[in-house]
Amino acid sequence: MTATLIDGKAFAANLRTRIATEVAGLKDQGIVPGLAVVLVGEDPASQVYVRSKGRMTREVGMNSYEHKLPADTPQDALLALIDQLNEDPAVNGILVQLPLPKHMDEALVINAIDPAKDVDGFNVLNVGLLATGQKAMVPCTPLGCLMMLRDHLGSLSGKRAVIIGRSNIVGKPMAQLLLRDSATVTIAHSRTDNLPELCRQADILVAAVGHPRMVQGDWIKPGATVIDVGINRTDDGLVGDVDFDAAKEIAGAITPVPGGVGPMTIACLLANTLTATARVYGLPDPE
Ligand code: NDP
Fold first, then answer.
1. Where is the Tetrahydrofolate dehydrogenase/cyclohydrolase catalytic domain (predicted)?
2. pTM
């Protein structure tokens, strides 16, 4: 193996320790950050995510409020709960676990969350703030990727970045964050021509596709930094969107799956909850 392994698990543990210290400092001032997580239905993967979010929220000393609603909950009942959480001063962050059941309008529900409590950063106001370079709540997965990239590379200015995937939760906000750091950004997707050739130009390659091991070793520029966002369940267990065994011989640095981007996502959710709390009380944003 020639590539440096970017250890997201260790990075996330470190970030959570720093958050726990900040939370303890707030407690001395009588402030306890609170995160409300709303789960509608019984999707098994979502149940696992919600459980681990709750556990890690408590571990850093925050209050966790979990709301589990049946799959056939009317949309109005969910909107009423969001209103109640928006008004509740003990709740600083609200996360509605996606995907929602088919009878619900995801955009409408997400946009009902108070933007100041929108710790997922999916509310259209936060999307606009991020796109225009203003103070926003930033989606957790790309925020975690950015932290690891900055930590590994220092300045991203002038670097050529290629992001594979244009979803609202990963690809697009990742592009905004890299642009904000003055990288030269290209977003690729399923209609992109000659994807391997495009990827070979990237100093930073972010794969957020959802196809197991799609990115081949010879798609990677020697020495590039590769961030693998993909989480794919296969017969060999969890694998990313990058062929890790081939890529690690060519890349300069790479995130593993599991143990890369995944743990950073939850740590960034806690970081966003801390930031949301600090802003309510007029305190500076935590580092
Ligand atoms: P989406 O399905 O919403 O988006 C996938 C994107 O990949 C689309 O833009 C699609 O293009 C593009 N794509 C699909 N096939 C190809 C192809 N053959 N070549 C190029 N581009 C292609 O997925 P998400 O963004 O939600 O998630 C992506 C992956 O990241 C998944 O594996 C998911 O599980 C994982 N994930 C991991 C997280 C973590 O915490 N580590 C958090 C969130 C997601 P088009 O738009 O043209 O259809």
1. 6-120
2. 0.97
190-206 burial by CB neighbour count: b if 16+ within 10 A, else e? eeeeebeebbbebbbbb
Residue 77 lies in a domain: yes
Total domain count, the chain: 2
Q: Is residue 206 part of a domain?
A: yes
ipTM above 0.85, yes or no: yes
In a domain, 131, yes or no: yes
150 with 248, same domain: the answer is yes
Candidate from 187, 189, 226, 242 with most ligand 1 atoms within 8 A of CB, to mutate:
189
Residue linked to tokens 């459980």: 51
Range of the domain at 119: 30-135
Question: Above 90 in pLDDT, residue 167?
Answer: yes
Residues 89 and 131 in one domain: yes
Q: Does the pLDDT value for residue 116 go beyond 80? A: yes
Pocket test for ligand 1, best of 170, 214, 255 (most atoms within 8 A of CB): 170
